Amino acid sequence: MKHWKDIAFGLFVSLTLAACYGEEDSFATPDIYKDYQPVLKDGNTVAGYAAAPLKEAKYDEVLNELYLTWDGSNSGWEKRDEYVGVEVEFNSLLSGKKIKRVMIPNVGDFGNLTVKRRDYGNEPTTLRLSKYRTVVVTDRYGVEELRFRSIYKDADGARQTSDWMNLSDQADKYELQVDMNYAAWQYFKTSQAAQVQISFESDSEIRPVSALYNLIGNGDEAATQEEFRKWYYMDCAAMSFDPYNLAFDPYGKLRVFIKKDQTGGAYAIDYPTHNEGRGIVYPASESNPNDAWWKLPDMQHVFMHEMGHCVQWMPKQGKYIMEGVQDCDRQGYQEGWPDAVKVASKGYILATQKEEYQAAIAKSYRNPQSDKYFVWQVDYNTSGAFMSWLRLYNGDFVRMLPWTVLMDELTSQWSLEDAVKYILKESYPDITMEELWNEYKTEVEVFLQNN
């Protein structure tokens, strides 16, 4: 019976979204949510269910993420044990349109999920995620305009909601200031007992390590190391919930190898073993003194992608496999997720990203190329930018993905499709990947028109 109540609750949450959308933002709403109109008791929400008390609010402009913490320890919050999530009205980062999204952060037992880290002898690690955390991806203006209403699930499994509340009014009520200058990467850095150690080697006479120091640190090795640490902690902030819930296997040493014979790009390696550290091999590009790989910000973007590989958890096997060609899901995730981390941190040049967007939305949804079944499996930016955009439905989406690839029920036949279904099962249980991709295309088209 509880199972059916959960399904009914999820369906009810998703269907009630229709009342929240006007024509100005209906482009962002899948059709299945447009017909239902809830009947409110006496024109108001159910009495006794108030907006969740606000404990903390801070905004990171690098990630465009607003972190909201609700005060679950407040004994005066009568219904706090029945709280499950929030519906938020905010500005979409890509289109700038005002939209509403239901966000249920603690899906099932996800907040206490335990997975086995295969690269560490199947050593278990447990996620500690509070249901009182909400992350919204929007711009600074969107923070000022943001509204929300709290969602509850009563003893009978029925959905209850508070009245709509402006974030600014809620902050005033609890005498809080929204910190608009928060930098998540700095928090990750200062929370580490020992900073990651970074070293550089080169076998190129044309591009020795001094060439790297000149480009990154004005000739100073220590300044170059510090900048690389910043890139590393920017990745950490985009891919993990907090420094104590790292969604990857941390390492203490990173060694950068500049190789004169390296062609075909950079790649990450375990060096000397996975437990001891990681390495990134980077091309010296001796034959091309003007190679973009040796310019900023291009070099930063490549290293941030490779740093993602250095810590990446991987599923055992994907769901969609082209025999004799490739594991479409595993390969797509391997190259897509590091790009999702990079895109979330705005690790791109706008002109280049526009070209990537145009190329992605020009592809057909099914069979977009000879080695993929679906467009969201296409390596690098096509899948990565889409994963980053899915933060619209849950601001922690990119952070949740690594945990899904090690889940017992998903890891042997993992797909982005099933990961999305799992993450959104209590907020949008009936939404399909094709609907999400079509919405993404529309958002990208608006972005391209505006930029």
**Overall spatial form:** globular
Average of the residue pLDDT scores: 87
Strand content: 15-25%
Number of helix segments?
A: 13
Number of strands: 19
Helical proportion, percent range: 25-40%
The unreliable regions are 1-47
Distance between the ends: 51 Å
What would a concise description of this structure say?
The protein has 451 residues and is of the alpha+beta class. Helices cover 33% and strands 20% of the residues.
Q: How does this structure look, described?
A:
The protein is α+β, with helices and mostly antiparallel strands. Among the domains are: 2-182, no CATH class; 186-311, no CATH class. It is 33% helix and 20% strand. It has helices at 2-15, 140-145, 167-173, 184-191, 209-217, 221-239, 298-311, 328-344, 350-361, 381-389, 397-405, 416-423, 433-450, and strands spanning 54-60, 65-70, 83-91, 98-103, 114-117, 123-126, 133-137, 147-153, 159-161, 165-166, 179-182, 197-202, 253-259, 267-270, 278-283, 321-322, 326-327, 366-369, 372-374. The strands form six sheets. Strands 3, 4, 8, 9 and 10 form a five-stranded antiparallel β-sheet that branches. Strands 7-2-1-11 form a four-stranded mixed β-sheet, with no helix packed on it. The protein has a four-stranded mixed β-sheet with strand order 12-13-15-14, covered by helices on one side. A hairpin with a 5-residue loop joins β5 and β6 (123-126). α6 packs across α7 (298-311), α7 crosses α8 and α8 (328-344) packs across α10. The chain starts with a helix and ends with a helix.
